[in-house]
């Protein structure tokens, strides 16, 4: 495998983004009431609420994958689909706010 060189500036910019990116959620939804957040834009599209739930749940899944990478010799990961995830209903049922 080829060695990858990453600048310290690149690392610092990514760390800053990870520390601050969730702060934009309050700004983006400041004027949105529950009805607007729960409204689906089209029949096959998720609402803002469902998208936020998906991001939260997938964060948990991703951390589980990272733990597997660190502790297992050859971890295998299947495709993630919220509809097939037993943890999804709990996340999508959570209130926002």
Q: Care to describe what's here?
A:
It is a single chain. The chain is 57% helix and 0% strand. It is an all-alpha fold. The chain has a domain at 33-97. The protein is flat and about 50 Å long. The mean pLDDT is 85.
List keywords for this structure.
97 residues; 5 helices; flat; mainly alpha
Task: Give the strand tally.
Answer: 0
Q: How is the biggest beta sheet arranged?
A: none
Structural class: mainly alpha
CA-CA gap between termini? 45 Å
Helix content: 55-70%
Summarize this structure briefly.
The chain is 57% helix and 0% strand.
Secondary-structure map:
Blueprint: H1 8-20, H2 23-29, H3 34-38, H4 48-71, H5 88-93
